[in-house]
Design goal:
Number of helices: 8
Strand order of the largest sheet: 13-14-15-17-16-19-20-18
InterPro entries: Cwf19-like, Cwf19-like_C_dom-1, Cwf19-like_C_dom-2, HIT-like_sf, Metallo-depent_PP-like
Protein name: CWF19-like protein 1
Shape: elongated
Family: Belongs to the CWF19 family.
GO cellular component, one term: post-mRNA release spliceosomal complex
GO molecular function: RNA lariat debranching enzyme activator activity
Strand content: 15-25%
């Protein structure tokens, strides 16, 4: 008989907001059924929880689920953890005992981890929610097969941005699983992001200087650059040899967006760089809705070479400057789903329409209404660290640098990005959510293209040489 999985909840920094946390847990259990336990990582007590905590400590209030707390992560809260071996702090609230929760300001903990699968690695103290692709760790199980570990950073309880601070998951004891299931790897698993393996550390093997990490890097490589800046001659400034031009990737068949393809509607092209070009969007949300497209055949941002990424970023920066001068902020999004050639949609939104926070809230609200998990990812992260080539995803970047990401697993509304921006909350043109309803004549498209070229010319970095 199959073992029934344990249903667990993990929580980020509580910071003394016990009522908010436990009321939320009650609501979840009422809707989704009972969970077996709640694991709290990060700062449980906060700076001044005494009044609220006293009600739980004395039994006036009770946690609705068996709750486990990791322990102190700063000197201020040590007083609440009297027994280093663990103890009951209040009814249904238990301190697990001393755990190393000081890791560069983050509380790191493997899921109740040893002997359970899948493995989870939770982090708190950074006040954000982020989930990376699962990665292989160094625990060898059978014939060089490895565990897949999921890294999840949780936000703080009751945060005003409504970032996710509770995570529901299920696990099964490994001793009750058959061998095939035990070594099964998720389809999107990556290699271990940590540079120093446990084996190397244990035997004292010296790690070469080039792999030195910044002190607080867990799953982002903050030091690695996306390719060096090139000089105007197209040469690497640190290389004595000319950089050989790379032939752009070719499509397997006809493509509407490869610049050399006869299918491209070239009257919509408004600017051409070395690796990318700009084109007016067909059936755009506005007259200056444009696309950033690679000249060669790339399916998504994740697959771009370093030099193409560099020019994409240059176009994004230039377009932000251009639209800002016209009283607009721009939203950039990509849908890598049921598409064959990368199209970065750049939609200007008049500043008078709404604030950036309104745009962000509109995306999050409409995602929730359609059961789409839209995650906020740290500004210093790179999408290549989140999605692998070939993975389906939706990604949006705001003018502040804030980024939202959804990993598409099954179906996804093709017009989602347009629907949000066309909604009453943003551009208030809901009738334009489908590009097919917004098409104009070729003559009108040519007129708009000429107008955009003229307006954009003072900002055109391709003319700098």
């Amino acid at each position: 008989m199959a073992q029934k999985p344990l249903r667990l909840l993990a929580c980020g920094d509580v910071e003394g907001k016990f009522d908010i946390l436990f009321n939320r847990v009650r609501a979840i259990q009422k809707k989704s059924g009972n969970f077996d336990l709640l694991l709290c990582v990060g700062n449980f007590f906060g700076s001044t929880p005494d009044a609220e905590w006293e009600e739980y400590k004395t039994g006036i209030k009770k946690a609705p689920i068996q709750t486990y707390v990791l322990g102190a992560n700063n000197q201020e809260t040590v007083k609440y953890f009297q027994d280093a071996d663990g103890c009951e702090l209040a009814e249904n609230i238990t301190y697990l005992g001393e755990v190393d929760t000081k890791k560069c300001g983050s509380a790191l903990v493997s899921s109740l981890a040893m002997g359970l699968k899948p493995r989870y690695h939770f982090a708190a103290l950074e006040k954000t929610y982020y989930e990376r692709l699962p990665y292989r760790n160094h625990v060898v199980l059978q014939e060089n097969a490895q565990h897949a570990t999921r890294f999840i950073a949780l936000a703080n309880v009751g945060n005003p941005e409504k970032k996710k601070y509770l995570y529901a998951f299920s696990i099964v004891p490994m001793k009750l699983m058959d061998a095939a299931e035990l070594v099964k790897q998720p389809p999107d698993v990556t290699e271990n992001p940590y540079r120093k393996s446990g084996q190397e550390a244990s035997i004292g093997k010296q790690i070469p200087a080039p792999v030195e990490e910044s002190a607080c890097q867990f799953f982002f490589d903050l030091n690695e650059k996306q390719g060096r800046k090139r000089s105007s001659t197209g040469r690497d400034s640190k290389s004595p040899h000319p950089k050989q031009p790379r032939k752009p990737p070719q499509p397997p068949g006809p493509c509407w967006f490869c610049l050399a393809s006869p299918e491209v509607e070239k009257h919509l092209v408004v600017n051409i760089g070395t690796h990318c070009y700009l084109a007016l969007a067909k059936g755009g949300l506005s007259d200056d809705h444009v696309l950033i497209l690679p000249i060669g055949h790339y399916q998504s941002v994740v697959e771009l070479s370093a030099e193409v990424v560099e020019e994409v970023e240059k176009y994004k920066t230039t377009l932000r400057r251009f639209f800002k001068s016209r009283g607009k902020r721009c939203v950039v999004f990509e849908r890598n789903y049921k598409s064959h050639h990368l199209q970065l949609q750049v939609i200007p939104v008049p500043v008078s329409c709404c604030a950036t926070d309104d745009i962000k809230d509109a995306f999050i609200t409409q995602a929730q209404e359609q059961q789409i998990e839209l995650l906020e990812i740290p500004e210093h992260s790179d999408i290549k660290q989140i999605a692998q080539p070939g993975a389906a995803y939706f990604y949006v970047e705001l003018d502040t640098g804030e980024k939202l990401f959804h990993r598409i697993k099954k179906n996804f509304p093709l017009q989602f990005g347009r629907e949000v921006l066309a909604s009453e909350a943003i551009l208030n043109i809901p009738g334009k959510s489908d590009w097919r309803q917004c098409q104009i004549s070729k003559e009108d498209e040519e007129t708009l293209a000429r107008r955009f070229q003229k307006d954009f010319e003072p900002y055109d970095f391709t003319l700098d040489d």
